[in-house]
Each structure stands twice: as C-alpha cells, then as structure tokens.
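#random but structural
TW: two for the price of one
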Amino acid sequence: MGVFRDGMCEAMVLRGFAPKTRTAYLSWVRRLVQFCRIAPDQLTPDHVRAYLLHLTQERKLSSSTFNQALHAVKFFFIEVLKRPLVLEGLRYQRPPRRLPVVMSEEEVKRLLGGAQSLRDRALLETAYATGMRLGEVTRLLITDIDSKRMVIRIEQGKGRKDRYVMLSPWLLETLREYWRRLKPREFLFPGEGGKKPLCVSAAQKAFGRARLEAGIRKPISFHTLRHSFATHLLEDGANVRKIQALLGHRSLQTTEL
C-alpha cells in the first residue's frame, strides 16, 4: 500500500488509536486491496460492498469482527482517501446478546487448587480477586501493589483509563509468599528472561492446566474469572455502580449484563 499505508498510520496516530487497533485496521484495509486487486485510490463503494459480502457469506465473521472491518474501511476512505463511503442498505451488525458463563465459588476454589505452581496460583488468584482483564494482570508491576492502602493500581487499562481495585488480605498473603520465593523484580508476573511481562498465551495455558486438574467441564476461559468476580460481588450485596468502577466499564449496561 506504500504511501497509503503511511498516510493511514499517521492518521491513526493523530487520532490516538491504540497499537493493536492500528495493526487491526491496517490488516483489514490490506485484505480489502488484495481481495479487489486494485490500487487503493481506485477503490469504490461497490468494491467495499463485495468485500464485506465475502466476509459475511464466505468467511462467516462474527458481528463484532465484521464491524471492526467496516470501521477500518470507513476510516481509510474518510481520513486517507478523503472520500465519503456511502453503502446503501448496509449497516453495522448487531451482536447477539449472550449471558456470560460464571463459575460458582466452589468451582473457583477447585480451580485455584488445581494450579500447578505458585506462580500460576498467584496469577489466577489475582485475576479472580480483582476482576482484572487478562492483559491487565500480565502487565502488573511490583510497584502497582500498594499494601498500605490495600489497593492495586491498574495503569492504562482498556480505554486508556487508570483505576484502582481492592487488594484483599488473602491475596496479599499469596503475593507475599510468591514474591519471597520467586523474587520478581519489575513485572509481577515476568515472562522468560524477566524483562518483559508474561505473555497472554502462557497465562491462558496456566488457566487451562488448572481447569483440567479441577475437572471443570463448563465452557470457561481466563476471562470467566472476571465474570465470576463481578457476579459473586453482586450476590454478596455489592452496589452495581461500585462493581462498574472496579471493572473499569464505561457503560453500566455492560456491568448489569
């Protein structure tokens, strides 16, 4: 894409897009150009429509992935080609509304008991006891743990927002034991070599091993710890808006779901 790629990169940087979003948007536009086999500045709404139909009918993308592709192409037309993109009768797709799977407190205990190392247990306990997203847990620094105030600072979570979550006494005890034995220096859960955070796939594998050991057959993932944290707080009488703040949700409707 050459100059068009550079122009799109500059436009996204100026708009403050996150690195992952920039990578995804570039990928969708590159696939559009490859699909149509035409120079980027020669693209028309008909080309885009044919591409989107391909994504829907042949690739069978989920609604959220389809919407991201449409966002990317619209951004390219408006910000780089300086042309409006009018697609008659085509709208963003409405994603299906599904309730999240939640573990019971007994299942959470079994899962934590199934962790195969102290690091794995500390990782899973931190996710459940704070409701953090997977990427937020793996990026935690030692200095984010404030044992005097009994809070954990999450810096630049989803939506580029900082927030604090509670640090429970039992989680603090686990983290202290973990630190005494493994002595991480910068990242709370360092990756190989200790200079980078633990990769997401390694954390997911730790969850998978614990789930297998615990014998839990529900369709759960690492993110289920976050759903379970919120649900158990609600069942214990916590205010929904307090849970919203702890989760870092922009919309109260997301928290209520």
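TW: number two ↓
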Amino acid sequence: LMYVAASPQPETASRLRGLYGARAIQVASISEVYGESGIIDPAVQRATFAAALADALSAGFSGIRVAADNTPLVTDGERLAAWIRWEHAADRFMADNAVPGLCAFDGQQVDVNRLRHLATLHPLSSAADPEPQFRMFADDGALLLEGQIDSFAVGEIPLALEVLPPETGVLIDLSAAAFVSRAPLAALRRLADRGVAVTIRGQGGGAAAHPRRFP
C-alpha cells in the first residue's frame, strides 16, 4: 500500500502503519513521489511506479495499491496539463499491471471546471448526473471513449496519444457511447488519415447508427 499526501502528518503515518504493518505500507509526500516541481513527466513518473511495483513483487506482494491526495498537482494550468498527460499514461500502466489507484482532489481548493476535466479521465462516473458527459481512458491496449462524444472530446485524443505507447488505437463502443452530431466523425476521419487506428463498433442511435472502422 502507498499513501501519498502533500505533507503526511507523523500521527497519520503511525496510525496507518499500526493498521497495516510497517512492511505493508509506505507513507510519502507528493514531492517524494511526484517530484519537487509538481509538474509531472509521464515517462519519469511511470518509471517511479514501475520501480515501486518491482520492489513490492520482489518482497512477495502481488502488486501495489496507491491512494493519494493530489490536489497540489492541479492548482495551475501547467500542472493540470501535466497531470492530464500523466493520467492517460497511468491508466495504461494500471491496465497492464496489478496497480489500482485512487486519486483525491480537494473540491474547496480546485476549481469545479478543473475537477470536471479530471473526471473525464476515468471510466467511472456519477450515474445520475455525470459532468461532463464523456469519458476517455486507456484500457486493454487502446484509448477508449464513452458517453456523449462531441468535437471537444475528439480534440482531446491527440493529447492522450502523445503519452501512450506507439500504435495505440482509439476504440469507441456504441453500447457505451454516442455522437452528439456528425462533426466528431469527421474529426475522427482526419485523425485516421494521420495514421491512427480508429475503431467504432456496435450499434447506436443518432449520428452513430452505422458502425465503421477507419484504417
């Protein structure tokens, strides 16, 4: 187990070690795990967690679980952009390894629109009133889009692909997604023309009624 916060209090660390055992939990600060600048380099961060995973496996554990209050890492535009790039890389890392993670953000310190943008990066959302209406995350070797897909959502794809492994394709399953108009389809065609494998599968209503694959 890894617990990460801006400045973990000694009593918190002591309580967690008492609950789980000193060998089974690491308590660390954000600067120790993510770096002093707070601006994340996805490749460097992936290597950090890969090393932590390797240490855990060599110690006899089956993987690592991470819980972190990452509020200081999204407090300005530069940090937020870096965090979003890292989220896509982290999704792929977690999909490929036994590394579930829980990221927390203080809603009283982070602007609601930033929180909404962060919410697009995970497959789970509020069933009653998800905001915004789409999700984009890496899983099973592809970049998945779900929910109500508009031109803004499609415009976010190149930023995600920048930090994912080469040859990562885009997958849209119409059982969990729908296009709000035909404009996103045209944008996906342009993306495919640049060499990205875009697959749309299943049946849906509206503009997405006919599944297709862009080579």
